[in-house]
Amino acid sequence: MADRMPGDAIDAELLDRYLAHECSEAEGAIVRRHLMARPALATALASFLSDLEGERSRSVPPDPGE
């Protein structure tokens, strides 16, 4: 989006590395500051990650063809 300020978003690659615990301490601090400044975004991200974790722990339904 052209109307966004440069500091308005973090890079998707940086967020990916942060979530995978593969970024530097300085990069992690950037992500944490970004999320602390945007509590609604931090809440949405936490909810999304929780939903993903729930999907991983859900058992696979049995195959009706078996």
Output the structural class: mainly alpha
Tell me how many strands there are: 0
Count of helical stretches? 3
Radius of gyration: 17 Å
Arithmetic mean of pLDDT? 82
What fraction, in percent, of the residue positions are helical? 55-70%
Q: Largest beta sheet, briefly?
A: none
**Helix/strand order, N-terminal first:** HHH
Quote the distance from N terminus to C terminus.
50 Å
Description:
- This protein is mostly helical and 66 residues long.
- The chain is 59% helix and 0% strand.
- It has helices at 12-19, 25-36, 39-57.
- The longest helix is centred in the last third of the chain and has 19 residues, at 39-57.
